[in-house]
Design brief:
The complex is a heterodimer of chains A (296) and B (250).
Chain A (H helix, E strand, L loop, with lengths): L2 H11 L5 H19 L15 H23 L7 H22 L4 H24 L6 H24 L8 H4 L4 H19 L6 H32 L12 H32 L12 H4 L1
Chain B lengths: L6 H24 L4 H5 L3 E2 L5 H23 L2 H31 L4 E2 L21 E4 L2 H27 L9 H27 L14 H30 L5
Helix pairs in contact in B: 1-5, 1-6, 1-7, 3-4, 3-5, 3-6, 4-5, 5-6, 6-7
The chains are: A mainly alpha (296), B mainly alpha (250).
């Protein structure tokens, strides 16, 4: 066994989290908590306006990068079922866990969600590895990480869109079925980068940059959605009809998210294109299509 | 406040959710799925991944089940029609794939795993091109796929109906909040079980006559355990919805 293979094996057996995982976990938790805790006081029966929801957006990107990194580690062994399968497995578990943790309705919900996701992901990885007999080294750890990353991304998306993690206030997001966008969007952001880049010339930094690009595009959609949701909350009739028009406090978060994600998309695209040019052996122009006269 | 949470009722629903997860796992074992080789017509089955195929069929089943539930409110009808919806979706997918294989690629439909088709008793092995593991979707695999779609649709609808029936004290008007919640949770469970089955068969299977079908009990055990854990959480979400409707502070 070569030296690099040995270190890889050791890394898979180690119980702790690596650097990317710790960064992803801490940044996403910090982002969610900054967005949740810095609020304007409650007004007219509305949920408190959270001006700093863009912090949760950054947290979402960090969590997606963490999960995508784990998808890369597990898929390198060859699952036999395609890279998307493990991403869909993670998002399936984490949707249930994220909605459940949000329904606990405490300030500890994100932490409880992350811990539950690590535990349940580890159990399912263990079952798949030992009972079904996949025998992929480090499967338990990787599936736990994918599930936890997706769960944190999901909970961050609740905060981005509605500004709170209280499920009754976020109910307009969860219980209209709009959360389905998060289901497939986060799954694609998690598995797409490695699925698109895989091959003998796959480089970690290129894959990660594509992940950030995917996550930023998802965040842009979330920003637009959050803007519409805030406008809807303020102008709809019923319990909160006291509010007329959207206030600056509620719109500042979505507006920052939209501009921030557009900037992230441009930077990530430019960097990804630089990496592609770096790794490509040669880039050739295909030329224009032949005109009518050339064909005759 | 006239609500009452019956633990035995909820436990029955938990068993039903677990049964639904197991049915989804069984269904994926019966669907002829070929993965990437089948997309190049080098293996028997539809040329896409298990997850995508099962999800396509399962989501159609859920869509049918939800529409039928809104229109009729009948749980049994909802189950059966959900199964039929999935079966129709899957048979259309297989039919169109077969038309593409026969008239587009120009190959006979042949199974690589069985020397004679288990249903029509036709010879298969002489039609298999060299270097491939069969191509297209022959009769036995096609019928197996329809049965698989039916079972999977019933499984998905069973999870959906069980989650929908969990907040039993809610009036029918408030169902507009419960139905999307039940759908998103059942989609999540559907994907989890489809991937477990997919790992068990290693990505490709031809149908019930494939050797890999004998590995089914392992996947059933894993799927039952994971669906049980997720089912508890799903039911707690639904119970909290009911509590919140009646204004209980949770």
């Amino acid at each position: 066994m070569s030296k690099s293979a040995k270190t890889k094996n050791k890394e898979n057996k180690k119980a702790g989290l690596n650097k990317t995982a710790i960064c992803g976990l801490l940044v996403s938790l910090a982002g969610i908590y900054i967005a949740l805790l810095v609020t304007f006081p409650e007004n007219a029966g509305l949920p408190p306006a959270a001006p700093l929801t863009f912090a949760a957006g950054i947290g979402m990107i960090a969590a997606i990068v963490w999960a995508a990194d784990s998808v890369r580690s597990i898929s390198k062994y060859g699952l036999g079922t395609g890279v998307p399968s493990v991403g869909m497995f993670g998002i399936g578990l984490s949707t249930v866990i994220a909605v459940f943790a949000a329904f606990l309705n405490t300030i500890w919900s994100p932490i409880i969600g992350a811990v539950l996701a690590l535990a349940i992901g580890w159990i399912s990885g263990k079952l798949i590895n030992s009972v079904i007999g996949m025998n992929i080294p480090g499967m338990e750890k990787r599936i736990a990480e994918i599930t936890a990353g997706s769960t944190l991304a999901m909970m961050a998306s609740f905060v981005v869109v509605t500004g709170t993690i209280n499920p009754m206030a976020a109910g307009g997001y969860i219980f209209t079925g709009t959360v389905t966008l998060g289901f497939i969007g986060i799954a694609v952001a998690v598995f797409h980068a490695y699925n698109a880049n895989l091959g003998p010339d796959e480089k970690p930094d290129r894959t990660r940059m594509l992940t950030i690009l995917d996550a930023s595009m998802l965040l842009l959609i979330y920003g637009i959605m959050a803007l519409l949701f805030r406008l809807g909350i303020s102008t709809s009739g019923g319990a909160d009809s006291g509010m007329v028009g959207a206030s600056l406090q509620t719109l500042i978060g979505p507006a920052v998210i939209i501009f921030m994600s557009i900037a992230f998309i441009l930077i990530a695209y430019y960097k990804f294109w630089t990496y592609v040019k770096r790794d490509a052996w040669k880039i050739m122009e295909t030329g224009l299509l032949p005109s009518e006269e050339d064909l005759n | 406040m006239d609500f009452f949470i019956d633990p035995i009722y909820q436990f029955t629903l938990l068993i039903l959710i677990t049964l639904g997860g197991v049915l989804i796992t069984i269904s994926v074992h019966m669907i002829p799925v070929g993965g990437a080789p089948a997309a190049m017509s080098q293996a028997t089955g539809v040329g896409t991944g298990t997850t995508q195929l099962a999800a396509g069929a399962g989501l159609t089943g859920l869509l049918v089940a939800a529409s039928v539930y809104i229109l009729s409110g009948d749980a049994l009808l909802c189950l059966v029609l959900g199964g039929i919806g999935s079966a129709i979706m899957l048979s259309i997918a297989m039919l169109i794939a077969n038309i593409g294989y026969i008239y587009g690629v120009g190959i006979p439909l042949a199974s690589g795993k069985a020397s004679r088709d288990p249903i029509t008793k036709d010879r298969q092995d002489i039609y298999v091109s060299k270097g491939t593991e069969g191509h297209g979707i022959p009769t036995a695999a096609f019928l197996s796929g329809i049965a698989g779609g039916f079972v999977g649709g019933i499984g998905g609808s069973l999870i959906f109906v069980a989650l929908l029936k969990s907040p039993a004290g809610l009036p029918f008007e408030s169902m507009s909040a419960v139905i999307p919640g039940a759908i998103i949770l059942s989609i999540a469970l559907f994907f989890v079980n489809a991937v477990i089955a997919s790992y068990n068969i290693g990505g490709t299977i031809e149908g019930y006559y494939d050797q890999k079908f004998k590995k089914l009990p392992k996947a059933v055990v894993v799927s039952a355990l994971i669906t049980l854990i997720c089912g508890i959480m799903c039911l707690l979400i639904m119970i909290q919805l009911e509590l919140a409707y009646y204004g209980v502070n949770v």
